[in-house]
Amino acid sequence: MNEKPNRIQGSCLCRSVSFEIVNDFAKLYFCNCNQCRKITGSAFASNLFVNIESFDWLAGSDGIAVYKVPNRDIAKSFCRKCGSGVPWLSSDGAMMIVPAGCLNGEPEVKGRIRIFTAEEPTWSSEFELIEVHSGFPD
Q1: Which of the listed residues 101, 107, 117, 125 has the most CB atoms within 10 Å of its CB?
Q2: Could you give the C-alpha distances from 137 to 15, 113, 116, 130, in angstroms and in order?
């Protein structure tokens, strides 16, 4: 009997773009490189990598724009309507790079790795020392 693998869906903020993927990731990469910080507008990019065979677009793939960083294997794929980051195809065509924040549920991840920490700005380090609130503070 063939069982369908555990799958998870993801989408952009406006839900114009959606996809489904096998929910089994070897690693979640937190990248602090200068390009990933610029692409996300944040302290780091949070990306999952999956074989192309494990990935299916459900809707809106024709509404995606892609910016490829010159001379690097880095890209930013986003919904043309809302601007949210969505998955993109690696330059060799074998993998989909999935921004973890566009998943609609919790990814099943075996390991987590921070990369390019030499480029991490001081303002984004030592998260364990930062004041924490479950919502906006009073």
Answers
A1: 107
A2: 29, 30, 32, 13
